[in-house]
Specification:
elongated, 6 helices, single chain, 71% helix, 0% strand, mainly alpha
Length: 138
């Protein structure tokens, strides 16, 4: 189960990097799958890079805590807190008349996977790599 949790956590760190990059490169194209139509144009489209850099920062925080600092439990706490983002996205999509399939299938599912991952990380037992010394036999 630990290996599954590791892969899931890394993927949950990588996905926001890809979404963020898409918002930086092609904001309108990336926004099409979010679930709200129409998207801002003109100067309001300046929110695309804002969303993009925030997604990138979110992914980097998860990956830094988990892969670089190896803080599995802390990553679980942060992941549970960050799940408020897709939950809010789901509420916003519903509130703006967006499709339920996007609200639930994209944002709701993302929140669920994040919360499951957080739970798995928080339930893990600490694994030590130190070897215990055994008394020498004479």
């Amino acid at each position: 189960m630990r290996r599954f949790t590791t892969v899931l956590t890394v993927l949950l760190g990588i996905f926001p990097l890809t979404f963020g990059f898409q918002y930086l490169v092609d904001g309108a194209g990336a926004a099409a799958g979010f679930g709200i139509d129409p998207w801002p144009t003109g100067t309001a489209a300046g929110y695309f890079p804002v969303k993009g850099i925030r997604d990138i920062a979110l992914g980097l925080v998860v990956l830094a805590l988990f892969a670089v600092l190896r803080q599995r439990r802390t990553t679980g706490i942060v992941m549970a807190i960050l799940a408020i983002i897709p939950i809010t996205d789901m509420i916003v999509v519903f509130g703006h008349g967006g499709p339920a399939v996007t609200a639930l299938g994209v944002h709701g599912l993302t929140a669920t996977v994040m919360l499951v991952d957080a739970l798995l990380l928080l339930r893990e037992r600490h694994v030590t790599t130190e070897k215990t010394l055994q008394p020498a036999h004479s």
